Amino acid sequence: MVLFIQCMVVSLLFSLAILVQLIKNDSVKNLYNYPPNIQKRVKSMKEYEGRIPSGNDKLTFKLMGAVVFVLVGVLLVWTAEVDGFLEAFIHMFLLFTVVNLYDLIVIDWLLFRYVKRFRIPGTEDMVKDYHNYWFHFVAFLKGIVIGLVIAVVVAGVYSLLFSIV
After folding, report:
1. Any idea where the domains of the chain sit in the sequence?
2. 3-state class percentages of the chain: helix first, strand second, coil last, to nearest 5
3. Percent of the chain beyond pLDDT 90?
4. Dihedral angle at the C-alpha atoms of 10, 15, 19, 25, nearest 10 degrees?
5. What's this model's pTM, rounded to 2 decimal places?
6. Which residue in 82, 68, 79 sits closest to 153, CA to CA?
7. What is the pLDDT of residues 68-109, one digit of tens each?
């Protein structure tokens, strides 16, 4: 039951983070989450010069995200009162996978596809690219691998912290 509640809360917080981005209306900051043809078009448009995140920005953002995921993950595993590395790993991996699946189905396949606010100005005609299920499915598969790594790290940190205390 704790895992179910955590999945719901984390998915809700994830949705709120997406909503804040939509309100700010600066989709270019998340350009690397868009299909390749859209990225290519935006990179070629003069009005976006200087606003497109560099590869270093993307890497920095992902590393900071991983650190936050690990810290929050340890807290979530601790609040679930799991026992040991394996249980912590399973709990964290299931939680990450549920949120990853929510992102795929609700955010990417439903909202991203149909909510016009996700469209970057100048790419509105690229409907086929915005409806690219495969791009998002591949990202989901990459998310599973990332989830495995984060779950191992969370379980390791959790085991170290709470086997010492």
Report:
1. 2-164
2. 80, 0, 20
3. 59
4. 100
5. 0.85
6. 68
7. 889 999 999 999 999 999 999 999 999 999 999 999 999 999
